[in-house]
Amino acid sequence: MAYRWTNDLTRADITPKSAYLNRRQILAGTVGLGAIGIVGGASAQDALEPNTLEEIRTYNNYYEFGVGKNDPAQNAHQLDTSNWTVKVDGLVDNPGDYALADLLSGLSVEERLYRFRCVEAWSMVIPWNGIELADILNKVGVQSSAKYVAFETVVQPDNMIGVRNRVLDFPYVEGLRLDEAMHPLTIMATGIYDEPLANQNGAPMRLVVPWKYGFKSIKSIVRITLTDKEPPISWKKANRREYGFYSNVNPTVDHPRWSQATERRVGGGLFASRQDTLMFNGYPEVASLYEGMDLSEFF
Amino acid sequence: MQIVDTVNQSLRKVPTWTIYIVGAAWVVWMFYLAATNQMGPEPINALEREYGELGLKLIVLGLMVTPLRTWTGVNLLKFRRAIGVTAFFVVLAHFLVWAVLDVQSFGRMWTEVVKRPYVTVGMIAFVLMVPLALTSNNRSIRKLGANWRKLHKLTYPVAVLAVLHYVWLVKGFQIEPIVYAFIVGGLLALRIKLRQRRVEKPSGLALSK
């Protein structure tokens, strides 16, 4: 069911939506989640100008293509996206190897202008084109025993220098709780700025979960598995003290090696100032998913 | 060794201030690239990293002077002070980009230094470099006498902390910081070996530090 989430943050709407944003700040305050002050509100408005396509395509973390921010832009052309197949398995009614076009056929692609916040404390605003993940999951039929969704990135060792260097234990894997996956904010993106995803942005299809740190939004997906157990995720496997399964954007829970209280928008130049990070990256509508959970324990 | 002699002869003709000039020009050039958006869409981080890496390279180069002379005969001794002092200024530039452009407030600087181990060790390394830079002149050498050499042994902890700073800040398994760790580890091992040789044969090689 597309269009369940009203995409107020369209490019055309940026300026007049300040009232909407203020409402967001108030909402965030009333549920008592995070100290977002007036400053946070003001900077959030500034942040709604989307980044340029060039910025989005030249500043990436995609460790399969190298660890430098520009490495994916240099190396990702080697990714072979032809005949893309997505394996859907686990607790689903219609498992199988789906050609990408078949998996997505009949589903509506929407534009979603989302804030994107990396765990490294930089951020962007990206006009995604994508399909609600819920639509895809409903299409393959989620069984009632399923509680989590696991995702896997393609591995093409011959085309991926980072895989050969074993920066992480590849394939890259990620996961969501089923209710997170079904939330209308969660999309499978296939484009940016109405253009197909560049390889370094996770072509041909990637997850986008805007209230979580960027590494949760797994790229170039070849497998979707419904499961009843919390699936392993790559960064937690690499360092469980530093990365948790949930990884919600949370200015009050610091990463052990850097603060999460503030962030810097990419594209602001050498003298860009920092801005306050918003609870759930400015998407307080997801707060109810975590009611009663201690978010410093389930980080 | 013909080649070594030629190299040393050419090196003798190079004035030491070249190091300062090249170092300063490079720092300014990198700043210019960052300020004019030629260092990618996130120039603050890129510049911070450029300065940090060159600082580390110069610290390593400074440590290589003695072993290089002992094992290959190539003599860079007259450049060592310039290398060390330039390393300090590049690390100072690294610190300033971090403080002024990156974290942007004293409160956040303090939090970072106290809470983040990799920032803590980087800051200690920087602080330890200050007395070294301040005493890198002939007057201090005369005044401090034997203590000067003791003081300048701080170069070793500085190098170790600088490498630790780098190893600690990267995510996942990355080659580059580990390469630096091996180089610095190797250089320290060589230093210990040299020292043992000196103890065994006190009248042998006159190895000044």
Written description of the protein model:
The complex is a heterodimer of chains A (299) and B (209). Chain A is of the alpha+beta class. Chain A has one domain: Oxidoreductase, molybdopterin-binding domain (Sulfite Oxidase, Chain A, domain 2, Alpha-Beta Complex), CATH 3.90.420. Chain A is 20% helix and 21% strand. Chain A is built from nine helices and twelve strands. In chain A, a hairpin with a 4-residue loop joins β3 and β4. In chain A, α1 packs antiparallel against α2. The longest helix of chain A has 13 residues. Chain B is mostly helical and 209 residues long. Chain B has one domain. Helix content of chain B is 80%, strand content 0%. In chain B, α2 runs antiparallel to α3, α2 runs parallel beside α4 and α3 runs parallel beside α10. The longest helix of chain B is centred in the first third of the chain and has 30 residues. Chain B is globular and about 50 Å long. The mean pLDDT of chain B is 92. Chains A and B meet through α3 of A and α3 and α5 of B.
At a glance:
The complex is a heterodimer of chains A (299) and B (209). Chain A is an alpha+beta fold and 299 residues long.
- In total, how many domains does the architecture of chain B comprise? 1
Q: Tell me the fraction of residues in β-strands of chain B, as a range.
A: under 5%
Radius of gyration of chain B: 19 Å
Determine the oligomeric state from the structure.
heterodimer
CATH hierarchy class name of chain A: Alpha Beta
Q: Low-confidence runs of chain A (pLDDT<50, min 5 residues)?
A: 12-47
* Main β-sheet description of chain A: 7 strands, mixed
Low-confidence stretches of chain B: none
According to CATH, the homologous superfamily of chain A is Oxidoreductase, molybdopterin-binding domain
